[in-house]
Structure formats: C-alpha cells, structure tokens
C-alpha cells in the first residue's frame, strides 16, 4: 500500500497546481477604468463643439489618436479657433489638442 502514497501525492500536487494556474490574471483585465478610448473622446469633442453656440455652424472635423485630438476644417474667426481648442480640452480623456483649423 505504501507504493500508492507517492503517486497520490503527485496527483494531489498536479490537481492543486492546475487550480492555481487558472488564478493568473492578464494585464488587460487590470487596465485602469479611467482610460477613455479614442472613439469616445472624438464623440465627446464633437458633442461639446455642437453645444457651443459660437461653433455650431463651423465646419470642424475631429480625429483622435492616443488621446491627442486633432481639429481641422474652417471657422469664421480667430476667436473660434481658440474656442474650439478650449472646448476640446474640456472633454474627459483629452491629453492634448492639435489645432489645424483655418479661417474661411
């Protein structure tokens, strides 16, 4: 009967080790919830610009990559250029704004 003890001990160790192997996490599961994806940022900037009475009629395109927002298109005044950048900076997740807006 003693020859079964090593085999049972090995089997027990393998079973215990197998259950622990499933406990390892992946980095993606631990990613911070505060991170906002680029499409969400773009949508937020477009909404914020649309709510601005000064910028509603402006022809502004918004693109985002890694939290960096790029504004392009045409606006009616230099004040609108500055306002668009300020509005974009208020959106959650925006790291910086690249303002390529032009005057009509």
TrEMBL record:
Record domain BON: where: 37-104
Does the keyword Signal feature in the UniProt annotation? yes
Q: Where is the signal peptide?
A: 1-21
User: What highest taxon heads this organism's lineage?
Assistant: Bacteria
Keywords assigned: Signal
Pfam families from the entry? BON
- Protein name listed in UniProt: BON domain-containing protein
Task: Read off the lineage from the record.
Answer: Bacteria, Pseudomonadati, Pseudomonadota, Betaproteobacteria, Burkholderiales
């Amino acid at each position: 009967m003693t020859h079964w003890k090593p085999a049972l001990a090995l089997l027990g160790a393998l079973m215990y080790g197998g259950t622990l192997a499933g406990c390892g996490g992946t980095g993606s599961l631990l990613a911070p919830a505060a991170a906002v994806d680029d499409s969400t940022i773009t949508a937020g900037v477009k909404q914020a610009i649309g709510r601005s009475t000064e910028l509603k009629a402006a022809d502004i395109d918004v693109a985002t990559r890694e939290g960096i927002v790029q504004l392009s298109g045409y606006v009616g005044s230099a004040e609108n250029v500055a306002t668009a950048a300020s509005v974009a900076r208020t959106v959650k997740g925006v790291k910086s704004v690249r303002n390529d807006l032009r005057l009509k």
